[in-house]
Write a structure and sequence with these properties.
alpha/beta; Rossmann fold; seven-stranded parallel beta sheet; 7 helices; about 40% helix
Length: about 260
């Protein structure tokens, strides 16, 4: 019997990434995860690793910068050694590291620098392309592969101090469409995932997140926020073989939040 394909999560140690790691492990998949944690947050990655091992699945976490080209190629080589003749069936891009500053400086609020904007676009947008290409070039992702990228409503709506991240998310969605087109002949799909407002560490860094939580809770027909586990459960189902014709989309996983004014 063929072994289940590996799942690779970029941004694995918290939020959507951690929930996806656990959900896919529960579904029988071995896990590869990339995260960037300092000593103050390293415990969450260790907890994740332990929880997946308790589920009986192999797990290998890399505490490195997923947006660094040299680190990426080193990790790809290590992954090849780890999985042997196996394949990576799912790539989830859930990197949440960017600058939250306004474009135009105001009193008490410095404006975004060129370096910060470039960094945000590279980490939260362009890195999806480089990882996807490396996996395909190395034959680690083959026919039946699934690529998912976490986007946000900031790709279309203007949110204070969210300009760089919003631009990165819009870029991410465009990259998904072009990856879907170019990878279709290989039998690999690519979709963006737009979750409802979710109380994650990334959300709590956004100025005004308290009001966002209140509005989303009132607006959602279930009168609660989306959780990382809600999204992870849907991703597991979406990664099954029967969804091969679903590609190039931005998929909402929000419990109906967006449809309720």
């Amino acid at each position: 019997m063929k072994n289940p394909p590996w799942v690779l999560v970029l941004g694995a140690s918290s939020g959507f990434g951690a929930a996806a790691c656990r959900a896919f492990a529960e579904a029988g998949h071995p896990i590869l995860g990339v995260h960037l944690d300092r000593s103050s947050t390293l415990a969450q990655a260790e907890d994740l690793k332990e929880s997946i091992e308790q589920l009986g699945q192999p797990v290998h976490l890399f505490n490195r910068n997923a947006a660094d080209s040299d680190a990426r190629e080193e990790m790809i080589q290590e992954m090849q050694s780890i999985i042997g003749d196996g394949t990576i069936g799912v790539l989830l891009h859930s990197l949440a590291f960017g600058s939250l500053r306004p474009f135009i400086a105001t009193e008490g609020a410095p404006g975004l620098t060129e370096r910060q904007l470039t960094m945000t676009l590279e980490v939260m947008g362009n890195s999806l392309v480089w990882w996807s290409r490396s996996l395909v070039d190395k034959n680690l992702m083959q026919d039946g592969g699934r690529i998912y990228a976490m986007t946000s409503s900031g790709s279309r709506a203007a949110i204070p101090s969210y300009g760089a991240v919003g631009a990165a998310k819009a870029t991410l969605e465009s990259h998904v469409r072009y990856l879907a087109m170019e990878l279709a002949p290989l039998g690999i799909t690519a979709n963006a995932v737009l979750a409802g407002v979710t109380d994650t560490p990334a959300l709590r860094k956004i100025p005004g997140h308290e009001e966002m939580i209140q509005v989303a809770t009132a607006r959602n027909p279930s009168k609660r926020l989306t959780t990382p586990e809600d999204v992870a459960s849907c991703l597991v189902e979406l990664a099954r073989p029967g969804t091969a014709w679903l590609t190039g989309n931005t998929l909402r996983i929000d419990g109906g939040e967006d449809i309720c004014a």
